[in-house]
Amino acid sequence: MRTVFLGTSAFAASVLRALAASPHRPLLVVTRPDRPQGRGRRLASPPVADVARELGLELDQPASVNDEEARARIAAAGPEAVCVCAFGALIKEPLLSDYEMLNVHPSLLPRWRGAAPVERAIMAGDPETGVSIMRVTAGLDSGPVCAQVTTPIEATDTYGTLAERLEGLGAKLLIEALDRHPDCVEQDETGATYADKLTPADRRLDPMRGAVELDRIIRALNPHIGAAIDLPDGERLGVWTARPIESPDPAPAPGELALDGPLPVFGCSPGALELLSVQPAGKRAMAAADWLRGRRR
What we know:
By secondary structure, the chain is an alpha/beta fold. Helices cover 29% and strands 26% of the residues. It has helices at 10-20, 47-55, 68-77, 95-98, 117-123, 159-180, 200-203, 211-220, 288-296; strands at 3-7, 26-30, 35-37, 42-44, 59-60, 81-85, 101-105, 113-114, 128-135, 145-152, 194-195, 227-230, 236-245, 257-258, 265-267, 272-279, 286-287. The strands form four sheets. It has a seven-stranded mixed β-sheet with strand order 5-2-1-6-7-9-10, sandwiched between helices. Strands 12, 13, 14, 15, 16 and 17 form a six-stranded antiparallel β-sheet that branches. Helix 1 (10-20) links the parallel strand 1 (3-7) and strand 2.
């Protein structure tokens, strides 16, 4: 089938790589423009642009996919289907109605519509998640669903491990949908939940939450964003991995960072977190034991 691919993120880049190796290799890849990134604010390409160039795929990075020129480039490719995955920009009419658009969304729709479905599923303690293939409509991830596949969320899953599984499942399911053209079913609006975009507030580990809940937040933000705690001196300490302790003895008060053991222990309510790997401000991530030894000097 003749396809065009719209995507931006690393998740989308993985799906693109699989799609390009299938009989539905995209004739055109559309992604977002290069943008400043990192501390140096240097221009960097989206992951999808990098993969498209690597694979020799025709690439377009318009300011808006809805502009007349961008729509003309898509039309010139003559797609029978437009595949969308983590594009990160609103697709409007008439583009919506011009083509069959299939979106790869990493959740079991209608649960976790929106920008951060993988992270929100881990944070919420969901026992499972999955991938949905849905037709793109004007609503937020509310189009009819053509196919779904589930996967359990393991107690040790991070965003990185879970997203990697979902990338593979999503790519396989998209290719199967292009092969088989399954019927689509409208979503049940009564089950809809929304995965709001992550903000700096989501990174802060609130000691008035339980240790198990905070552990889920840490895992949901690893390895791409990272969680953090506030130190008594006003600095923030990044936390990449931790272990919940439900009944610590002795128990540090909520918000207290106990430094008298082999590892730092952060008091929660209830329980505590034994910190395993951390990142001091302005430094690289390190084993929490090494950070603790340096702090004691």
